[in-house]
Amino acid sequence: MAIEVRIPTILRQYTDGQKAVEGNGDTLTDLFADLETRHSGIQARIVDAGELRRFVNVYLNDEDVRFLDGINTKLTDGDNVTILPAVAGGMV
Description:
Layout: E1 3-6, E2 20-23, H1 28-38, H2 42-46, E3 47-48, E4 51-52, E5 56-60, E6 63-64, E7 80-85
Parallel strand pairs: 1-7
Antiparallel strand pairs: 1-2, 3-4, 5-6, 5-7
């Protein structure tokens, strides 16, 4: 099962600069574990204590996975996963 994972600029240091990588897994948990086998260190930047990190947003085919089943969201062949760091800041 092939799943395209879009990688934000801040995490591309783990993917040798690649904007998108391919992964496999039945759930997001499985997918992130699979990515870790080829891109060491990336999983810890996305997941903490079995949950998505607070300031990381993950989208499955343009749907926020926090409104699906979170890290346990099921995946199917051909899905697209986008990882986006949350943006904060600005002037008051």
